[in-house]
């Protein structure tokens, strides 16, 4: 049974900061470091227009390099804060804290086990990241709760009112011995959810997260969902994403109403040495007063930005060049974690 005094906020609620980890030569970005740093610098400049940015760096040399690049990109230096910690990679959506808000204004940091997306990659240092941030004093008096159960932030979406959206493909892969009812009970108890919505369909070729929801469908204000569609019936994604769209149309809010749906356009296939990359417009980031939207250098970029803007009215839309990110199978939302107001 969920506790009504705690809840998982929606991303569009007020934030105290955004959290990132700077890429460096010791991460998987090493062979294309300059390219991906340009995206991180653009992201940082955009975020600091609207709120603080907390940057994790591996050592003093990485911090100095990041500071120089951020200064050159025009990031607002008074809104930058650095903390030095070890990490395996920079996908902080999945290794960073999932924060609950209490009705009395308290914050609780949920520190789920991070397994490198089901054991695909080494993740020992990433799994210790939240504890390291807590020990560094970043989160003040917020309660820290370690949960020995695999869950990544990119696998769940919250509307801030007790509804959680996720995919069966991902959570079944993480917990193959568990029945759906057991997984749902864990989500309800740990996230204080009262309504768990499952998608059976939807995937992106080149995605190694096993269909994280943040690459496919996102809650938006006013009982809405923004989702990645595929209009090209010759594309191998077409049938699967069409079935996902049908599932979304059948979902109901906790009060029994259908969701307003916003379908995102489909970019042309982006290949890297013959490998298709997972380019999703659904992987956008909401910050205070703005929404940062992935741009892939595709004709569909502008239409995607307009649709996301319509779903998140009264926010400035800022495109971020994300083509370098998808080389490593993620995008804008995947490398960030928003920190709710009151946490930092």
UniProtKB/TrEMBL annotation:
Organism (species): Aerosticca soli
InterPro entries, alphabetized: Peptidyl-Arg-deiminase_porph (IPR007466)
Assigned keywords, A-Z: Hydrolase
Protein name in UniProt: Agmatine deiminase
GO biological process: putrescine biosynthetic process
GO molecular function: agmatine deiminase activity; protein-arginine deiminase activity
Coiled coil stretches, renumbered: none
